[in-house]
Amino acid sequence: SQTIHQWPATLVQPVGSPLSLECTVEGTSNPNLYWYRQAAGRGLQLLFYSVGIGQISSEVPQNLSASRPQDRQFILSSKKLLLSDSGFYLCAWSVGQTNTEAFFGQGTRLTVV
Amino acid sequence: GQQVMQIPQYQHVQEGEDFTTYCNSSTTLSNIQWYKQRPGGHPVFLIQLVKSGEVKKQKRLTFQFGEAKKNSSLHITATQTTDVGTYFCRGRANFNKFYFGSGTKLNVKP
Q1: For chain A, which residues make up each domain, given as ranges?
Q2: What are the φ and ψ backbone dihedral angles of A84, each rounded to 5 degrees?
Q3: Sign of CA dihedral B28, A42, B7, B103
Q4: Separation of alpha carbons B82 and B75, rounded Å
Q5: Residue A24 to chain B, least CA–CA distance (Å)
Q6: Tell me: the pLDDT tens digits for B43-88?
Q7: Closest Cα to residue B99, out of A102, A50, A75?
Q8: Interchain contact, B99 vs A46, CB within 8 Å
Q9: Which fold has domain A3-112?
């Protein structure tokens, strides 16, 4: 069966520090991968999506970046965090173009102080 | 930017009352999905609608997809405290572009 792992679960980082969140998927090949951010009490904002290794599409210009070094690995990074980067970050995957159900990781709650 | 609008933002109901949340898109959607996010948790897939005018039911939940495939609704009959959470729609606009609605947070008073 397919599983998705996202870590860490919680993170407190000072302003200006770097960020690296990792997400890995098991049990499937060539998944579509997504990074979403959810501000407190708000909706889900699509940050990045990837349809293959090295293929990243950005939805929102900001100080975050994403990389996909391996087929089932998706990394969200920042060189210098801002206070406004605080939120709940969710990684998700889906397969193919027609079967578009998305499966989410447990999320990372990031607090920038 | 946001392409799928969802209302209401919040809904407080007494247990046993009905609840409905609506999603509207400015563009035609190839399909629409609904997710539920419990407090502190991650979104979990509920259902997907594909056909124009499609209606699907899951026990007390009824999902509809509009004839023009631009709007959708989720209706819960006789809410229970276990229904508490935030309900999101997710629309597929074009190839691999999926947008979530802003969500409706449901609170059910026992």
Answers
A1: 3-112
A2: -70, -5
A3: positive
A4: 15
A5: 16
A6: 999 999 999 999 999 999 999 999 999 999 999 999 999 999 999 9
A7: A102
A8: yes
A9: Immunoglobulin-like (2.60.40)
Residue A99: pLDDT over 60: no
Closest CA to A41 of B73, B63, B107: B107
- Residue A107 pLDDT exceeds 90: yes
| Residue A97 reports pLDDT greater than 80 | no
- Within a 10 A sphere around the Cβ of A14, how many other Cβ atoms? 8
Is A100 in contact with B48 (Cβ distance < 8 A)?
yes
Q: Which residues of chain B neighbour A42 with C-beta distances below 8 Å? A: 102-103
- Which CATH number goes with the domain that contains B47? 2.60.40.10
Q: How far is A59 from chain B (nearest CA, A)?
A: 8
- CB < 8 Å to B105, chain A: 41
